[in-house]
Amino acid sequence: MDGFEVLDARFAGMVLPNAPLQLLAEGFAWLEGPVWFADHEVLLFSDIPNDRIMRWTEAGVSVFRSPSHFSNGQTRDRQGRLITCSHRHRNITRTELDGSISVLADRFEGKRLNSPNDVVVKSDGSIWFTDPHYGINTDYEGGKQGAELPALVYRLDPGGGLEIVADDFEGPNGLCFSPDETLLYVCESGKQFAEAPRRFIRVFEVEGKSLGAGRVFHKVEPGFADGICVDEAGNIWSSAGDGVHCISPEGVLLGKILVPHSVSNLTFGGRNRSRLFICAGQHLYAIYTNTRGCAVP
């Protein structure tokens, strides 16, 4: 099939040979943080260096928020509110239903967070996010600032308590839960500018409010796993240097959607959550699939 690389027969049933990769928009600086609003048929995504959140609909692209304080990863909570990671303000915010913005977390034990990168919300309302140094390492994606904490993964309790759930990452990045929320997948993107950074996807057993010992789940090549999402069957869809990689729950690479540019982030949305939206550098793509992403608001 043109545009695909089938490595396992299971993947052939997940994609559609008559559904091509579509270029939805281009001309951005660097895209990440896509989040789908099914109730409005809207995709929001972060154009990080341009300090804005963009809005895509079938009618076209417009600016949703500018400045965005160099927002990166985004998701929705169980009430449908937008949860956003900010590099510049080094915090996690929530956009309330009336449009106001609340700061949910910006410090841990009195020290400023680094640059929250990606975020997911569990069904119990807890917010789990990664906090690497990437956004404070350069002026391009937030602004050079001193780090006060190591790179960590956090859980924010619905009551407001913040706790560390993983402390052995060099550069925690994208993350997602398995459909039944018994597993948490986290991308290790390594230290920025290192000659040989650690780069792979790790998986942890979720043990209530904490995580069990993690293990390496899969190593994406070429490129590395930046953003990930999961479908209803528990397959992990990951960004990669040559497109999107689909990985089975056992860690087996099933196939690839080939994309002309290196992919950073992705999410399912559209009709029946069977359309995959893909952030690839300066470009926004989409492709219809024969699988559905896990349903969230």
Structure notes:
By secondary structure, this protein is mainly beta. It has one domain: Neuraminidase (6 Propeller), CATH 2.120.10.30. The protein has a five-stranded antiparallel sheet with strand order 1-25-24-23-22. Strand 22 and strand 23 form a beta hairpin. The longest helix is centred in the first third of the chain and has 4 residues.
SSE blueprint and pairings:
Blueprint lengths: L3 E3 L2 H4 L9 E5 L4 E7 L4 E6 L4 E6 L2 E6 L5 E6 L5 E5 L4 E5 L5 E5 L1 E2 L2 E2 L6 E3 L5 E5 L2 H4 L14 E5 L5 E5 L5 E6 L5 E6 L11 E8 L2 E2 L3 E4 L9 E3 L5 E5 L2 E5 L5 E6 L6 E5 L5 E6 L2 E6 L9
Antiparallel strand pairs: 1-25, 2-28, 3-4, 4-5, 5-6, 7-8, 8-9, 9-10, 11-12, 13-14, 14-15, 15-16, 17-18, 18-19, 19-20, 19-21, 22-23, 23-24, 24-25, 26-27, 27-28
